[in-house]
Design a protein that fits this description.
TIM Barrel, Immunoglobulin-like, homodimer, Jelly Rolls, about 725 residues, six-stranded antiparallel sheet
Chain lengths: ~725, ~725
């Protein structure tokens, strides 16, 4: 905490009438959520272990009052007292004593209130939070359709109905000089040949200021690149500009360094005294969405429609095959999420050779430390605005809030080089949402992004034309396996695809009473934890007992169920990531649904259980996303004795390097017998080049085991080896 | 000409250096184009009769200087002298004496220059027009890719390479009071139940003004609806607002009246003297693009993409099936086009039961009288911005020009109720253009339209997802007839589809020397006039000799060729319009390519020859676009003796009314024999309801003639009768 900041001690209570104070107060943790404070005071179990989250329902309908007492500060000495909050969720007032000094709808805009003239110390400061937003149109996510409030909180197929509310971002008092830096903004352009970055700096001061303003741009080694000292002449705006020659560009991981610069600005008074200072990290990169290779050549018969949307990400002039995952809220309560929660998750994402996370629009936009980590790790971010699966309002009030919230989000994040795509929100142009290109919310977001960050691509929503979302099952409702579905699909990008898998046995035991653990029942805790009836399209989701049974027979223990379920998730995701990579360059992205989860689910499409426990699928995905690997395209998962097993061999390769040719050897292991089937010499692979090889065929023998393996070994490059498990069906199916 | 306006007499000449005056001057017609002035002075033939338009080529490379002498005006008496031009094409300077007072790139922005302080009378006033814009990237339309200059002028499959330049809009001097009305803007919202229109008026005055400002809104009967008198208090902005209860809405033709209001504003000085006045016609209507019926229900397998774009036009809450045509520049030189040219063309469009014209982005945006006529006739306008078939620049300079030009276009036209769709331009998201959703030009246009006219739909380009452009032939390169193509297509809107037809024999004789007239040759005048090699996809276009011959044998005279060619255009277009209507409501628009043409073509997709001579296809289209008609879906055009002729009977119906049921009788006429084949009673048709009837079958007899007819008669409603001609193939084909 800087010296000029004062932490506040808060209490919180509820009331049905904001003009009447609560009867009962409890200690409040800020940032946090009222639900957590109340549960803690009541001694309720942690919500993630709670079999009855319904007990939180009433909290949505009341007003919550946070109260603190303003400290009696020493003589202000000409300084100004500011109340600063990074965000209050969702609609709220701020009162000092009896006086309402601020009202706001929207949780993503920072609050900065100059209290100097209304508070001398000793007054109460209250933040009155209104009942959660509710469109009144129905139950569930549609309640969020008139607000910029993450829709996931209203219940989703992996999220309970539990709608956080309260002060969710860092909140404090701050003493500032009367002359201080109100806003520091910058824009930059990377020249087409990447030899020069042109940086423009714009600073807004709190008043018509005199004195001296200084700025400097410093590279990652502490060398000053450029800077300027400006004698102020009663001005409230200061501009600066510089050119960075031979800039150290920021690259996504796998393509180069994650170089950053620092921009430091300081404001001095007329006597040279330091009045204020700000420091921002900046990374320089260019990014565009360009047409997928081959997409312009698709020439449908007349009448002709348009070509598919451009979905190939080009960073610093380099086309990048996107490997990544959908990031969802890492907790039901975003207020308690911080760097400690982000760091291990993001490091696991990096370990998977991912280069991008799609921050899904159902969830809240992350906190600054999320983006700092992504900058550091070279994890690009596709940031949805917080809209998902609704037909969002066209009312002037909603559009006004959306415009302000969006502007705040873009301004906060645009300095982060990791943010390479803005997107209006999730699945808005589909029947279950009902928005179209004409929807004002989308047109407004396009406008805001164009004004504030025109050089970062903007997507109106996802999916757009040519892009695929789904499927989400190993075996779909039509009886098609995921392998078949994706081997016959032709999309420019797969930005949601999932295979569900159960949590570990240990995690399940922590959630589910022993007497309900096995066999799983479709009601009760298993259902509450998304094992059954989670997804409207499939009653058995996400445990998918029928599918497991179809391949492996009825499991005899929870352990067996988990092993088979996790194996199918792992093998399914291997098949899908590698198939998407095989479809490169027409296909440009492989982003599974989803990476993490907001609370512990019994089964889910995530490859990590809450809070950060990888399922076996994570290791599988890590294998399939290596820059270079031997890979096999196999049509299906299950085989019987006598079947002619077929696998098309491939070398998959991406990243900025070429690699030498080598020899792949393919083996099949049935029980303890490993047979060499085929050897394939492949020549050097150019940058980003895949290579298709021969098809191996082998008659499946009768075996005892329920699985067998295909093993690909690359001579001298064991790090390129791959293994695949298949199901051996003892009986005719 | 109002009393305070002064017409100017101009001369024009060219120079290679704008600082050196031309050696030779000729009289200039303003508005017009330098080419027309020079040709007239040289005694060249009219360009539209000219076999050598190449003689104009050098004019593109030089500077053109328009010069006039400023009149010595009486004592200005405190008034200001303005130079006003509606538009100069394309980049230009304005000089008074030696002094450059204005520079501009862009032909759609009005020029208003206060010359009071630089001119006392007697000075020369010069408008220096730069060489035509040229991107330098190649020849043809690509030259226009860095400018907001209509691309058609650079050569198209129906337009010669002839690029107009010069003063193309009304241009004059005007005396204004120092206090005058600089800008009058308004916005309105039609309430959801159409019972109230809320009108906001905003006026910018030329300076901080005192005195009195008055405004009034008057309905079409001269009744004052509302108004206000404002005492000015040193202000330069005046706002007004009113509510119109039970408003007379403006309706597209066929759906109601084209009611208009007048907004009159006046500015008076402190002594009550009238200083300035303005008057604007306003029509009130709401319009939206909503999802086509059935389009949300289309559920592709996973991976799922988005739904198609919303393309059903809803005006004042009523879904309207769009029947219309593509409007192209009615002349090579937009400077000479005015109300006299528009009126007969637009009245023909109205006579076809069209309710919309798509003003194609290859051409210049029309002049005010075009939109006034469309308002009056109830012809809706889909207005493309002037971009077509190029990958438009991303340079800041281009985007700056585009932004200013687009804003000017929107502000000029948004009061016209007829303008119901803004569109970024023609075929920009196709391979031959290469733009994508990410293109800054498109994002900028979306932003400008959202800011200035948010309640009028915006399309980024056409076609968009689900919409079809093409085909343009009776029989395509794959050998498919247009009937088959469209009966198997499934598009949400057909917004370009064409069948070429030759001009009349009389017109051909006026263009083509007698010795070249028949048989047509693929070079020379026939080619220059688009009879051959016009369209890169088809060497024989637009005369399509092979296709005519395939059905009717080799024609023996120009008359025979024209009869058959025009018959095929007429029958083809009947089939296409009626098929699009049968596909309602999934299909929402039928807009053929194209209505008119900019100079006389020997053959073209247009249904009108330049300047305003309908081909037989126009009458055919008029038949097929009647609100109610008996219609037949027939799979093909040509039949042989012994074939089983089949026709599916339909009643097509649109518009806001229901109609009574009746009896359709179908006859086939072979030579002089007319056979009654089938009678069909149909029940009442609800508003907008089509009805499919029985399929008639009839064995085709041997006949002498080359055509036979299907005739549908509706008892008591001869205005619903329809006739179709088919080709009788005497020989096996």
């Amino acid at each position: 905490m800087p010296l000029n900041r004062y932490k506040l001690e808060w209490k919180v209570g509820y009331t049905s009438d904001p003009s009447i104070l609560p009867d009962k107060w409890v200690n409040a943790s800020v940032p946090g959520a009222v639900q957590l404070d109340w549960a803690s005071a009541e001694g309720w179990p942690h919500f993630w272990q709670d079999g009855d989250v319904g007990r939180y329902a009433w909290m949505e309908k009341v007003y919550w009052v946070y109260e603190t007492t303003l400290p009696r500060l020493e003589e202000l000495d000409g300084k100004r007292l500011f109340f600063v909050s990074g965000g209050v969720d969702y609609r709220f007032l701020v009162r000092v004593g009896d006086r309402t000094v601020h009202g706001q709808e929207g949780m993503f805009r920072r609050v900065e209130l100059d209290l100097t003239d209304v508070a001398k110390g000793g007054e109460t400061l209250e933040v009155v939070v209104f009942p959660i937003p509710d469109s009144g149109l129905g139950e569930g996510r549609i309640e969020a359709s008139h607000s910029v409030k993450p829709a996931v909180s209203y219940g989703w197929d992996f999220h309970p109905r539990l709608v956080p509310t309260g002060i969710w971002r860092e909140t404090f008092l701050e003493l500032r000089s009367a002359q201080h830096i109100k806003e520091l903004e910058f824009d930059y352009v990377v020249e087409d040949d990447f030899s020069v970055v042109k940086l423009d700096i714009s600073v807004e001061l709190s008043c018509l200021a005199s004195g001296v303003f200084e700025w400097s741009l410093v590279d990652s080694e502490g060398e000053v690149v450029d800077g300027e000292t400006v004698n102020l002449d009663q001005q409230s705006i200061v501009d600066g500009a510089c050119e960075v020659h031979d800039p150290d560009l920021w690259w996504p991981r796998g393509y180069g360094d994650q170089s950053m610069y620092f921009l430091a600005v300081s404001l001095h008074g007329e006597n040279g005294e330091l009045l204020d200072t700000k420091r921002r990290r900046i990374g320089f990169r260019s990014c565009r969405l360009v047409m997928n290779e081959g997409a312009w050549e698709e020439s449908p018969e007349m009448p002709k429609s348009r070509s598919v949307a451009a979905m190939t990400l080009e960073v610093n002039g380099k086309r990048i095959f996107v490997k990544g995952s959908n990031w969802v809220a890492p907790d039901v309560f975003p207020g308690v999420v911080g760097e400690d929660a982000y760091r291990p998750l993001l490091e696991k994402a990096a370990s998977c050779h991912f280069n991008l996370l799609r921050c899904w629009g159902g969830s809240a936009v992350g906190k600054p430390s999320f983006f700092e980590q992504c900058d550091r790790l070279g994890l690009m971010v596709w940031q949805d605005f917080p809209l998902a699966c609704n037909c969002y309002s066209e009312s002037p009030e909603f559009l006004d809030t959306l415009g302000q919230e969006a502007a705040a989000i873009v301004k906060q994040l645009k300095g982060h080089p990791c943010v390479v795509i803005w997107c209006g929100g999730n699945e808005l142009f589909n029947s279950w949402s009902g928005m179209t290109d004409q929807s004002k919310a989308i047109r407004l977001l396009n406008k805001k992004c164009y004004e504030l960050d025109p050089d970062t691509p903007f997507l109106p929503t996802s999916p757009i034309m040519g892009v695929g979302h789904g499927g989400y099952l190993f075996r779909d409702q039509l009886g098609k396996e995921c392998f078949e579905v994706f081997q016959t699909a032709r999309n420019s990008a797969y930005v949601e695809f999932g295979i569900p898998g159960p949590a570990s046995v240990e995690k399940l035991r922590s959630l589910i009473p022993e007497d309900q653990l096995f066999p799983p029942r479709s009601e009760g805790v298993w259902r509450q934890r998304h094992g059954f009836g989670a997804w409207e399209c499939d009653e058995g989701s996400w445990l998918c007992m029928d599918t497991v049974e179809r391949y492996f027979g009825r499991p005899e223990s929870i352990e067996e169920l988990v092993v088979w379920g996790q194996l199918m998730q792992a093998e399914g995701l291997k098949g899908l990531y590698e198939e998407a990579r095989r479809q490169k360059p027409y296909c440009s992205m492989a982003i599974n649904w989803c990476f993490n989860e907001p609370w512990p689910a019994a089964a889910n499409n995530s490859i990590i259980s809450w809070p950060c426990e990888p399922k076996p699928a994570l290791r599988a995905v890590r294998q399939s996303c290596r820059p270079t690997l031997a890979s096999a395209r196999v049509k299906r998962f299950s085989w019987k004795a006598g079947d002619l097993f077929e696998a098309e061999l491939w070398m998959l390769h991406d990243g900025p390097n070429s690699v030498k040719g080598d020899r792949v050897e393919a083996y099949l292991r049935f029980g303890d017998d490993e047979s060499f089937v085929l050897g394939w010499y492949f020549d050097a692979l150019e940058e980003g080049e895949n290579r298709v090889g021969p098809v191996l065929r082998f008659r499946v023998p009768e075996i005892e085991e329920q699985t067998f393996k295909l093993i690909l070994r690359v001579e001298g490059r064991p790090d390129w080896n791959s293994e695949y498990d298949f199901c051996f069906l003892a009986r005719a199916n």
